[in-house]
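Homework help board

Subject: predicted structure for assignment chain

Our instructor gave us this sequence and asked us to write out the predicted structure in token form, then describe one feature. I got the tokens but I'm not sure how to describe them. Can anyone check?
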Amino acid sequence: MNVFAYLRQEPCSPRRIRTPRIQDLYHASLVCRQWNNLAAHICYRQIQFYNVQSVFNFHQLLQDSPHVRKMVKKLVFPARLGRICPDELLDAFEGIINLVESLHKLNITFRCVEEINYDEDISEFVHVIPMEEGRHGNLHDLTVYGPGATLGRFPAGMTAHFVHLKILSLQGVFLSEPVLADTTRPLPKLYSFTAFMGNAAIMMDDWLLSCPKLGHVAVTGRQRGGFPVGADEPPMKVLVHGKLNYVCLSGLREKSMGRWLASCESVRALGFGWDLFSVCDASMFHPDLYQVLVEISLKDEVSLDIFERSLGEDPSYDHLTVTLWQRNKSFEHIEGALKQLCAELEVTLVIDDRSRYREHDELPSSSSRGQVFTDGLSEELQTWEMAKT
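My token output:
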């Protein structure tokens, strides 16, 4: 097994190691039966679907080849942020999830986990992800994509059965009511929570406070309902509760930033999009802060003045990490001056230029990734397939 784990690893950056290529594993699997068995465990460990048709194909494979079911540990289903998943595709998701034996990671649409109200007295869960004891009980990483502005209820049953969940990410999920610690038990091992768009961050603030291991919270994109706006009031109570060590904020209202940041005593690393970092100054940071991370995109107008204001004359933090997802000309103009500034202030500067090696990352061929396949699909599925996010 170890032979395959190290096939053709090539460093594509000082911080990343390229994973084994599927083509390498495929060729190795043809050597003999024993090599085939070993390679299959790696090939089927994580399944990522890049188009609708591949979901139905894999569902059929699991029915025809039962030995594959126990190999699958991670499923990344296709999702369309803001669009409701068609019933036909939902049925295929359900079939796959019920055939595989024990998942560790799952990316899925909200329709697979939301609680449905049939009337005032009766409610039940959509059992696409089995909620009974023992099924996928080792799931530790769950990403859920919302259907847009449609409101749903957080599945309290999930917290009862996925007790090993460590990472929860809600993308564009809109909840109809707050999730309260009194009615929804905490996840005892939850360490990382991410909310993108939607209103989950607002609705789950009280419940997040009850999760004893929570240490990482990321909130990106505008949250419907709005955060409290004011220099002294934090967007979420959990941010200043005193147990988080990493907080990442991006895409919120600029007025959400203020002096409340200085009360985040336990936070050692603060992450920002350029939009929010540009309105921060040195007085907003707690003296015990260790690191600030800033993400810069293609269209951000970067200036040295912003960095100078954040660092101040006596910086609160010792490390500054700048991540470039795409080349940014305005940053290139001030990069040399920023390095000099950090050197003078004795702040360690790390520039994580991911744009330089992004194109070298190992990706599936165009025949399986990025290409839209609509032959043989119903009109509803074709529409959903064409709406790639």
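Reply (TA_rk): Your tokens look well-formed. For the description, you could write something like this. DSSP finds twelve helices and 18 strands in the chain. That's the kind of observation they're looking for.
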